[in-house]
Design a protein that fits this description.
The chain has 163 residues and is an alpha+beta fold. The protein is 15% helix and 31% strand. A six-stranded mixed β-sheet has the order 1-2-3-8-5-6. Strands 4-7 form a two-stranded antiparallel ribbon. Strand 5 and strand 6 (111-115) form a beta hairpin. The longest helix is centred in the N-terminal third of the chain and has 7 residues, at 4-10. The protein starts with a helix and ends in a 17-residue tail after the last helix. 37% of the residues are buried.
Length: 163
Amino acid sequence: MRCSLLTGLLLANLVVTSYAFGQTRVGDTEFRAAFDATTMLLETGTGTCETFEIFLAVKPVQRKRGLMFVQSMLPTQGMLFQFAPQTSISMYMKNTVIPLDIVFLDNAGAIINIAEDTEPYSLTSIRAAGPATFALELNAGRTAELGLKPGQTLFRPDLTALQ
């Protein structure tokens, strides 16, 4: 995957800071204080690369919070949840205001399945179709715009600061 090779070159410096409440937009000062951020190149379904600012939810407190209470997110932003390698992942939309697409990925960064246009505030469980390591949340409709499909490798985890 040609754009994955560049991902490692684009990683931002990660800073671990305190947990914040009441954010309204991804990228606000309070939001940035709660989550580490990195720049990632994601390979689209057409083989082109898109640059995203990805906020990382790798600690339990970050995974629990996620995008709850966020009022808006830019089309070039997202949140990547990292779990134990190849585990059963289940998400829900509790206190999540904006509809999302959730992309479940294996430990190699390949798409397992995509939950599109999830329902805000829903407590219904949204599950990975198989063992997964990552869940990437993007604005609803972005996965279709990017042409993302199961089986496609979206990024290379070994080139990021996630592992």
